[in-house]
Amino acid sequence: PQEIVSEENEEESNGVNLMEFSDEILLHILSYVPCTDLVLNVRRTCRKLATLCLDKSLTHTVLLQKDYKVNKDKVKQLMRDIGKEIYQLNMAGCYWLPSSTIDHVTRCKNLVKLNLSGCHITSLRLSKMLSTLQHLRSLAIDVNPGFDASQLSSECKATLSRVSELKQTLYTPSYGVVPCCTSLEKLLLYFEILDRSREGFMLSGQLMVGESNVPHYQNLRVFYARLAPGYVNQEVVRLYLAVLSDRTPENLHAFLISAPGSFAETGATKNLLDSMARNVRLDALQLPKAWINGSGLLQHLKFNNPFYFSFSRCTLSGGHLIQRVINGGKDLKSLTSLNLSGCVHCLAPESLFRKAEDDIDSSILESLVVSCCNLRHLNLSAAHHHSPESIGNHLCQLLSRLKHLLSLALPVCSITDVAADVEKPPTASNLVPQTFGRKVRIGIQTYPRNLADQANQKIESSVFWALMGSLRFLETLEIIGSSFSSAMPRNEPAIRNSLPPCVRAQSVGDSEVAAISQLTYLQSLTLAQLPNILTGSGLIHVGLQCQHLRTLSLANLGMMGKVVYMSALMDMLKHCKCLRDLRLEQPYFCAGAQFFQALSHCSSLQRLCIVSRSGTLQSDAVMSFMANCLEVIMCHMFMGESLTVCKNLQQSIVRSFQADRPALNVVIFPLLHEDLTEVIRDVPMRHLDEITLFKSRVAEEPPNLWW
């Protein structure tokens, strides 16, 4: 046909005409193309594609949340062309779009699900928009300072009264739209309220005068609250919980509160938990550690078909875990996600007289593996899980039975081959101090430089190599030192000193990283505080074999006074064609021309974050990198350079590339500067939460909590 003349060359060379495929195959192919490209570009190429691109299977759900090239005009045209066909619209994290963009959502009269988290929206705009969306049942929004519920119209409140799922991110003390949602079944709350204003004034957790204090929870099935650090967030969440403590919804099946630090139990929360123990059967549970530690709560709570448990940072012992939660394995086949991060005694029978570094009780882990045989997500990080010397009882050997695992987080010391570690005499690398103090000259180290030689040394005996070989479908892996802490915590100045790695972890290095290369389908890899990285040669193998890798986070590998793996990292990056997010945290990191030339091979890269005490950068190299890598929309660099150098580079990047990259977010700032926390608070939450701040993300939330 005349419309597809442009494809003649491809047809002649391959003997295949794309347009000859069936509609079903073409629709499947088109489903991988961003909706904006389908509607605004692809459908204009020929008549057949013009019809297919408007198929209901492609226009029913529109995802703009990571379409960083979309702008206000494209959204306007998209809504004009297919607005009436859209039933689900996800614009989460589109921080670069002006608030007036939301006005065009009113064209989507049939919307059932709408996600505007991270978008700029005022009370009046929200009211106008929701007044036209009579079919809406699921909504996600931010509540910012200045939000006024009294500005919501009666039509808007009528729409909210029919909403059954609400996700609300709070940046100011408020109930938001919760009191208007009288049919709520799922409520997700994210508390991001700072304790101090920009002017330095202390904020109060008291809500605005005149706000209703009677949320409607009678139909609630899922309650989830995630708190950022800060006292005000704790004050406000208690107001949300007050109504629950008076009357617990009969249909409640998921109750989850994620709170960092200390969040004390009160009389009201104790009444709530007692009521839950009497009246409901749960499928998902997460509580602040103070609510579980030392209480018999778990003994009284009843579970139905649990799919998610998080006991993060709790002092729960393995004995209690087996007796009170696993219940002999009768009810845990349904469990798909388990977070035991920071639960230092969870694999020991008792915690009273046990040291954190003592060996685990393998029988407890075996009971866990047998009972929870369908686990897909498991987090055992931030603890010392040392395996005993007995044959067949190593943590890695037991975990290899979990054939359905998709994501796994482990402490570095847990993957050590015990026999090899016991027999191995201390090497020169083990004696190197892991601090920033005076350098100790230890002579020439001898180690294999060839990757194959290194890997072959342990392939026959390494339990970690065997574990990686048995988890072929693993997509996310985190190996994090049990004493590792990032130099960039959330609301505090940068940490100047880090704790030394666990003694049992001292031998973990290049050969263990090489073992990870067996994970063919790996998409996300985090490595932090691996002391025995000598050359980084294992990284090259990962780059070659893990071709689906999208997210890479490396922190404090090898000696702290020198970046020993730089050459290997640059070789690795040349093979990472699918890499989208890269986070590097390493003292004395030199972000120079050679590094950025290697990074330029990552043609899909979108976000880069470098955190380096005493680190240096070359401004010309950064500018050249940004010019070559057209997909990069986030560049965060916290280094040892002066404030003047950082500001000049940041302004140059914004001035040169902002016009062509509407989502561009650039933060270049001295790591140890006293105003770092003020700079961090302006970073879009999507970037801050997903890459800039270091944390373990495995089983952080229940799977499919939101769409």
UniProtKB/TrEMBL annotation:
GO BP of this protein: SCF-dependent proteasomal ubiquitin-dependent protein catabolic process
CDD domains: F-box_FBXL18
GO cellular component terms, semicolon-separated: SCF ubiquitin ligase complex
Occurrences of domain F-box (ranges): 15-62
InterPro entries from the UniProt entry: F-box-like_dom_sf (IPR036047), F-box_dom (IPR001810), FBXL18_F-box (IPR047948), FBXL18_LRR (IPR045627), LRR_dom_sf (IPR032675)
SUPFAM superfamilies per record: F-box domain, RNI-like
This protein's name: FXL18 protein
